[in-house]
Design a protein that fits this description.
Elements (H helix, E strand, L loop, with lengths): L1 E6 L2 H23 L2 E5 L6 H8 L9 E5 L1 E3 L10 H13 L3 E3 L7 H13 L5 E4 L22 E5 L2 H9 L12 E5 L1 H5 L3 E5 L6 H9 L17 E6 L14
Parallel strand pairs: 1-10, 2-3, 2-6, 3-5, 6-9, 9-10
Antiparallel strand pairs: 4-8, 7-8
Helix pairs in contact: 1-2, 2-3
């Protein structure tokens, strides 16, 4: 079941989602002295992460951060590197001392194994995710693997996903977007206690409609979020344009 919340614009959405995220982190620290979180990257997450790093009364020294996905073969110096993105927009501004980044320069299967062991060592309190223009969840493009129990997997990116990265300005051409990536698996994402999904912008409207209103199917990977008991989907008026707002939380 999704708790769908619609806001007038991207910034209002980001502030509300950040308040929610910060509350989850504070509660985990109060309960168990540490919080374990997963963070997404990409253009749609920038305002949210900016607001989150400024949230009051979050002891970031007690936060363990896990990486959702990363390109294979991309150096950390590349502007599209998700390691660089997290360091620049979350880890360093917040002062997170313990984090587990996916090294796309190393053997991907070794990276999957090492990161998977660290992630599986204890429950994860909250995951921040987005929805791709093709409905992907993390880098699980359609048709996504809904069955594997591996925490991290190697995936091949489809052309729609790769073109999205070009359109967002991360790469100058499709030919330069890596074809393979490391991604947290769908089942692993669903093991998280709470999921906060941030999906603004009109270009996400069709994927949002399919996620909320269509069948739960590997062809719309984000639709699997409807099977989780604690998911909040944050939309703006643009990304929710194809939904019937009647009955949705505003």
């Amino acid at each position: 079941m999704l708790d769908v919340k619609i806001f007038p614009d991207k910034l209002t959405l980001a502030k509300a989602a950040a308040n929610d995220a910060a509350a989850h982190i504070r509660a985990a620290i109060e309960s168990r002295e540490r919080a374990r979180i997963v963070a997404a990257t990409g253009t749609s997450q920038i305002e949210f992460l900016n607001e989150l790093t400024r949230a009051p009364d979050v002891d970031w020294r007690r936060v363990d951060l896990f990486h959702l996905d990363e390109y294979i073969g991309l150096t950390i110096a590349h502007r599209a590197s998700f390691r660089k993105y997290l360091l620049d927009r979350l880890i360093q501004p917040a002062g997170i001392g313990r984090y587990h980044l996916l090294d796309g320069d190393r053997d991907p299967r070794e990276v999957c194994e090492e990161a998977g062991k660290a992630l599986s060592a204890a429950p994860v309190d909250v995951a921040f995710v987005g929805i791709g223009e093709n409905g992907h969840l993390a880098f699980n493009d359609p048709p996504a693997d809904f069955d594997t129990d591996e925490p991290y997997i190697v995936v091949r990116l489809d052309e729609i996903c790769r073109q999205q990265q070009v359109n967002e300005g991360w790469f100058p051409s499709l030919a330069e977007v890596p074809e393979f990536a490391i991604s947290m698996s769908v089942r692993q994402i669903l093991k998280t206690a709470a999921i906060i999904c941030i999906a603004p912008d009109r270009r996400k409207a069709e994927a949002v409609r399919a996620t909320v209103k269509g069948p739960v199917t590997p062809n719309v990977p984000a639709s699997i979020l409807r099977t989780h008991s604690n998911v909040t989907l944050y939309l703006d008026r643009e990304s929710s344009a194809l939904l019937d707002a009647a009955g949705l939380a505003l």
